Amino acid sequence: MLTQIRSAASGAQTAAEAEAAVAAWFDDPAGGFATAGYLGDTGAPPRRRIYETTVVDITARADAPALRDVMKAAAMASLASGGTPPLDRLERARLLQASGRQAASAAQPMATLQAGLGMAEASVADTRAALSARKTYITTARNDMVSADPFETATNLQAVQTALETHFTVIARLSHLRLSEYLR
């Protein structure tokens, strides 16, 4: 991109001409940024359903005006520090000032873009937390229905073991009984 921007601004003799060349490269709907800088999707922002009733619109893309304005400012700063176009020291300083003004004017739209992304991220995080809690609840309910209570199972096992020991003790005593021992 920067090579193409330098080429577009190569004939500029002043900071204003260089600034206009950069703006033209970024704003031309039939060339520059639209055809060579941004190669992504240009359709409507994608919508993603993240839960039954929760939908997130992904509105931030690299061709968003806020990002494009930031890239304009960076491109102007790069032109001011490079050798193309060949500007004198005063014009380079003016181009850097224009770059700073461009960056400052892009701050609010950039913050708005970031806020939109933050809200989408928060929506995803909230939904993820709700789904995690729901999964935990369902897993606990399933375990309650399917799994045995360890304390109750141990208590029942101990009771059966005691009954078996009592049964074997009685059988052992009965097996040693004989009529002759009983009559004595």
Summarize the structure.
By secondary structure, the chain is mostly helical. The protein has helices at residues 2-8, 15-27, 65-81, 89-146, 150-175, 179-183; strands at 47-49, 55-57.
Straight-line distance between termini: 116 Å
What strand line-up does the widest sheet have?
Answer: 1-2
Tell me the radius of gyration.
39 Å
Order of helices and strands: HHEEHHHH
Extract low-pLDDT stretches: none
> What would the average pLDDT be, to the nearest integer?
90
Structural class determined from secondary elements? mainly alpha
Biggest sheet architecture:
2 strands, antiparallel
Describe the protein's topology.
Layout: H1 2-8, H2 15-27, E1 47-49, E2 55-57, H3 65-81, H4 89-146, H5 150-175, H6 179-183
Antiparallel strand pairs: 1-2
Describe this protein's structure.
This protein is mainly alpha-helical. It folds into 2 domains: 2-146, no CATH class; 150-183. The chain has 6 helices and 2 strands. It has a two-stranded antiparallel sheet. A hairpin with a 5-residue loop joins strand 1 (47-49) and strand 2. The mean pLDDT is 90.
List keywords for this structure.
about 180 residues, mainly alpha, 2 domains, two-stranded antiparallel sheet, 6 helices, 2 strands, about 70% helix
